[in-house]
Amino acid sequence: MKGIVEILLERYQTGPDRKLFHFVDYSSEEKTVAEVTVGMVFENAKAIAGELRERGAKKGDRVVIFSMQDAGTLYAVYGAMMAGTIFTVIPPPIDEGKIERFVSVVASCKPKFIISNYALEQQQGPNKGLKKRLLRQAFLQAIRLKRVYTDRITPASREFPVHLAGPEEVVYLQYTSGSTSEPKGVKVTLQNLMTHMDQVQEIYDYSTGSTLAMWVPFFHNLGLLFGIFLPIMALEGKVYFLQTLQFLQRPTLWLRLLSEYEVKLTLGPNTAYALYPNILTPQAAASFDLSHTSYLLNGSEFIDPLTLRAFAELFGIQAETFACGYGMAENVCLVTAAIDHYKTLWVEEEALRKNRFVPCEPGQGKELVSLGEPLKGITMLAVDPATGKPCEEGRVGEMYIRGNTVSPGYWGRVKDNENFKARVEGYDGYFYKTGDMGILYRGDFYMTDRIKEILVINGHNVYPGDIKAALRKNVPALAVDSSAFFTVEANNREGVVACLETNKPNFTLPALATHINRVAARMFEFSFYDVVFVEKDSLPRTDNRKIRTHKVRELYVQGMLSRGYVQGMVAQGAGALQVLFSSRSYDLARSRDAASAQSNNSASAQENAALPSIAPDGIHEKVKAVFDQLLEREDYDLDAGFLELGGDSLKLVECVCRLEETFHIMLDVSRISLDASVNGIAELIENQVMEGNGTAIKIDLHKECTLDASIAPEAPYEHVLSASRHLFLTGSTGFLGAFLIRSLIEQHAGKGFRITCHVRAQNEETGKERVIKNMKHYRCWKDDYAQYIQAVTGSLDQPLLGIKEDIYTELSRSVDAVYHNGAILNFLFPYAFMKETNVDGTRECLRFACTGKAKYFHYISSYSVYDTPSNLGKTVYEADPLTVGEGFSLGYSETKWVSEKLVQIARERGLRACIYRPGDITGDTVNGIWEMKDLLSRLVVGCIHLQKSPKIKTRLHIVPVDYVSDAIAHISMQDGACGLAFNILSPESVDVKTMVRAIRRMGYKNRLVPYENWREELLQTHIRENPLRVLGSLFPAESTEDGQSTDSLITRFGPLQPRYDTTNTLRFLKNTGIQKLLQKKRLLAVYLQYFQEQQYF
């Protein structure tokens, strides 16, 4: 067998001056063309071979060639073969993905040499960050490799015989693209290569004056075969190369190249052809003449018939110009090819999902493009993956191939080498299992999908290609070709994730995700576990632009795709994608907001979700603070592991101890070490607490009740309570805060009246905008209110409330009364987690009230301060001293109990204070506005989702928010209120039966079922399916394994719940008309109507 090096030698001897290769450069105003003759190829290749030999290269040594898309790459390929080495062509490691590829290739084939172009390497060199990453990942491998530069080669100092490989000798390794698995080095023998080139030349007339133009890189098997090897085989013809980067920057340069040089043959993937109908008008396309093009090769990925028709129509050519094919590196390049007979076939979609191939009338099913017949010498079969037997007629199977072009296997001990040894019943010898599904129908191959990418849902196969087609048809705004679909384990079953690129930031992405799920449900009877939108062109791709589905999945599983809901921003991090939106993270964010009423002094919900460092739960912020202390740095990647950032194993143990102190839960070091990054640990802590698995560290609350001795009024009171005109309000952007501002203004506005709203914001102007926006959201805003409101920026968990010192001093001298309403309301997290905001924030508010002018202090507490076993079954009075601090069921209640004790201490030191204890605050009585940010609203909506409610004797203390705000606004200005506490609850509570009747009146099915049955069904649901599921840990089993009854919210708010005294409240509200708000009939119906409007169910 005559090898390619021998053929190059013959071409050199017969026509050394033939100008064969042309490198066209459009980077400057004037086009330049670098011409390369056959003689230049041979002489430079021989010089490189001599350099390799002189530097110790032996037969079989591996050589890595960096594909610089220049003539030097041509020389390197032939030079490596002349030296008897085994080469592989890969892109230079100039970005994240290519670094990974370089490291994996070096680890796989263990080369001794790297061949590159020194000048181009300097131009394309990685930035500082990537250099650092490259050095870290590849230093040990790269440092041992000898470098050969094609632009610094001199003729060999002595003659040496050119190596001529034998038929079975491996001449190069073609590393697979890795779109469905990590790259593997395919061994290509001389026989594989030469046989395949004979096959290709038989179908493509390339040796009689044809011209070829291409931008496909040399490291791709198409680029290597058509760009470097076939031109040498041909007796005539020319090749024109366009830099891949230039094509990507300006796709029309490919068209210009085809037009200017009247190219006969070109090639590219389907996505390349799909570009032009989207970026060119018919008028612009008319400037490019493609009439002389004989073949537009289309392969390397799924071929969409709509794309081909749109391209052909745009440029006025026949669809038959497309030469569609199917191939893979394991068979050198091509397996099948359709030449001069482009055709499509319509098949029934439902049958296809069941692996049956049933043709149907056009437009009635799914249209597939014929990929042609197998090349001469290749046997191709559709095999049943389950039995290993050839498929019956009309059945789709996994494609097996064999022939002299099939590789002997992958380099090294790769598990997938077993795919080259497949047996088929009734056939002798081995076949290669391609991993692709399809059928040979009337001699033509039709591919249905890659077996690794088929989604098996409810026993049926769902093809990613089908999903793309359905979304393209039903959601035309999506760029569904730029998408990945894969499965992940979710709740002990497989869930399907859709990850899609978009350049439409103005879309309402939550609504779009909902639309996508509706389409999936309608067309395929499933909905996505998660719908993720990322920035355009940010999905990991192979060197030939295929989306690396396995890499996208890997990033997703690692939490780098959907950690936090980010809208209108870019989530950055090493290896992270530019995530715009994740439906699952969005739902989780909403669930967190519902489980923990957003800190009333925190940013808006969207801002909180976008910036974990200022989220009300503060998990990321607290974890990062521990990292900052131990690592003694603040600027690092939040997805980088603790050890990567400079920590050691002992410091990691210290880190865990500090986290336990911070969150007051027990943590497993072995679990943390799996992802010891800020984001990884924060997610672990969040999940552990949300699932009720966070073992809280016991705290003596009595020891928490300490107040600095300096916190006492500095001056005597100079005004009475009712004369307070300048009010200071915390929690001004929360639910109650909005209505409290309205009530205070409506009841007390007048000359000199103003409210300073403490708010987290960049400045006072944006702070006031947030307050107004929040009030508008709750429909309690009037433009006239603006004159009474001013904002001051700060944070409850900071010294001096985070207020600038000069402003703090000024306010301390002018404020008459403090209304401390801000707090984190969270039903899941322990006391210590909320301490900084809820307890320390109260300390700072007390300090402010005592600094400068003596101020009245109004503390909004909660009726949950009575939630201890000592109060069960008793009547609890507003004047109770609250001496028992043990046995609370919620950490939130503990923070309120401690805070009240602090207020009592300050009151004993002379501070004049009132305490208000609202019940479960619900929506207002007019509009029913009530967001799912508490247990009660989630219980109502959750039961509607389940269509069941639990048979429990719990009574719900529904207290409308406008009643609470009006009551506080009125009582707080009554001179006799100081020193008292007020239980603000409705005298009538609501039981579960009443709730069920209200639900039924709205037309929703709902029935009462035993608690254990209801609980079990709730826990089987997913967080995104039922808003109550996030609080599942609050609903324990009725008894423990040993038969003991459990202590829970269910029992505490059942028959044994306290009877609440409201004497003070009723006395101060007498004759005001405020109590009429509690008398509104069918209040639950108002709330349900609002929930319905908000599509909560």
What does this structure look like?
This protein is α/β, with parallel strands linked by helices. Among the domains are: 1-10 and 41-165, Rossmann fold; 579-695, ACP-like (Non-ribosomal Peptide Synthetase Peptidyl Carrier Protein, Chain A, Orthogonal Bundle), CATH 1.10.1200; 703-1093, Rossmann fold. The protein has 36 helices and 44 strands. A nine-stranded mixed β-sheet has the order 2-1-10-9-11-12-13-14-17, with helices on both faces. A seven-stranded parallel β-sheet has the order 31-30-29-32-34-36-41, sandwiched between helices. A four-stranded parallel β-sheet has the order 4-3-5-6, sandwiched between helices. A hairpin with a 2-residue loop joins strand 24 and strand 25. The longest helix has 20 residues, at 831-850. The radius of gyration is 36 Å and the shape is elongated.
Structure keywords:
1097 residues, Rossmann fold, Non-ribosomal Peptide Synthetase Peptidyl Carrier Protein, Chain A, 9-stranded mixed β-sheet, 7-stranded parallel β-sheet, 36% helix, 18% strand
